[in-house]
Amino acid sequence: MAIIPPTVGYQYVVSLGHELATFAAYEFLENGGNAVDAGVAPMVVRLANGETHTISGLGGWRRALDVDSYIARHQGDIPLGVRRTVAPAAPDVFVQVLMRWGTMRFADVAKRAQQYAAEGFARHSVMIDYTRQ
Question: How far apart are CA 127 and CA 86, in angstroms?
């Protein structure tokens, strides 16, 4: 993983969980997008007029899940990995915030993610370890 030193932003600042996501967000801002376009799915949006809006991106458990059996199988603990994954609602949040406050379409902001998915990207040790678990 590349080490990118902290920098000072004079027009805007972007900080995300992975450097490639940060670079993509920076490109959106450089190309006239706003903070919603760059963040794609902020769960909390504070507008310039002080209004704050929250949109939940957490999905739900599948309907076929037998909750009691699930709890018993894992002795009341939340297991690591895919077994604890809920149905993702994040794509809906992405579209909602872009429609309400963004300046770009989802297809525009998803282009970089599509490129990385198709061509691959370097993974850091924490991501590799989590995936293995």
Answer: 19
* Alpha carbon distance 130, 21 (integer Å): 19
d(CA 126, CA 17): 12
DSSP H helical ranges for 9-105: 19-30, 35-39, 67-73, 90-101
Instruction: Compute the distance between CA of residue 107 and CA of residue 109 in angstroms, rounded to an integer.
Output: 6
pLDDT in tens, the chain (133 residues): 555 666 667 787 777 777 788 888 888 888 899 888 887 766 678 888 989 888 776 666 677 888 889 889 999 888 877 777 776 677 888 888 899 999 998 899 888 888 988 998 888 888 788 778 7
Q: The whole model's pTM is what?
A: 0.55
Q: Where are the domains of the chain?
A: 19-126
**Burial class, 110, CB count within 10 angstroms (exposed 0-12 / middle 13-18 / buried 19+):** middle
Dist. CA 10–CA 26, nearest whole Å: 13
Kindly state the DSSP code that residue 84 receives in the 8-state scheme.
G
